[in-house]
Amino acid sequence: MQQTPQASSGSNVPAWVDAELADPHASAEKAVKVRSMFSAIAGSYDLNNRVHSLWLDQAWRRRAVKAARVRPGDAVLDVACGTGDLSQAFSATGASKVVGLDFTPAMLDHARRKQRALAAAQCEKLTYLEGDAQALPFADGSFDVVSIAFGIRNVQSPARALSEFHRVLRPGGRLVVLEFDRPSLAPVRWLNDLYCGWVMPRTATLISGDRSGAYRYLPASVGTFMSRAAMREAVAKAGFTEVRDAGLTLGICVCYSGVKG
Fold this sequence. Notes:
The protein is of the alpha/beta class. It has a single domain (about 30-180, about 225-260), classed as Rossmann fold (3-Layer(aba) Sandwich), CATH 3.40.50.150. It is built from ten helices and seven strands. It has helices spanning about 30-40, 45-50, 55-70, 85-90, 105-115, 120-125, 160-170, 185-210, 215-225, 230-235, and strands at about 75-80, 95-100, 125-130, 145-150, 170-180, 240-250, 255-260. The chain has a seven-stranded mixed β-sheet, with helices on both faces. Helix 2 packs antiparallel against helix 8, helix 3 crosses helix 4 and helix 8 (about 185-210) packs antiparallel against helix 9. The longest helix is centred in the C-terminal third of the chain and has 23 residues, at about 185-210.
């Protein structure tokens, strides 16, 4: 497995400076900075997700599980699993195995603590591993479903990650990607930009006490990430067929899906 970059997890160390936030995806140190940032906010991550999505984030994850069309006995890989919300949702299906993978140990610590509260049947099928989305530590054709929720834009090379997702899926396996987008309807886009660009960074930073710049990076990373059409094209270029995208909540979030032919 490709070595995961190491970085400080101290919340008093800024991960991003203003100049970098003009296009954080262009930073050669993006992976190190993202890991440092998520280490800093891991403790308040779930609370901020609920509050700042107006409690919609779990509904979006349920939509992703539905799009994955999990069958009894399926093996599921949830990449960039964070604190494990989507992994847990998959463990409640008929899947026989669910692996949650993330490259931030502090996030996985919280995921494992949450796992202990699950019913025994869910807990037993769920495993968490540290790893890199761009170099998955699994053999070809190991999974029936691969998912990534709000993580593809945080990867240094999304194209490389999508290629890895295709590699570890079995023929007929399904890919599901949840990611934020800027709504196409002008009034909704304006309100969303105001909320994500001005309100959320301030209130989320207040809740988390974060000084890493995480909640300044997050809206910048959405605004400078590939468009919805470009994301569909990237999924298709990785080898997936039946590529679809479904806008959720007026296009604030998009659920992409594809099949390994």
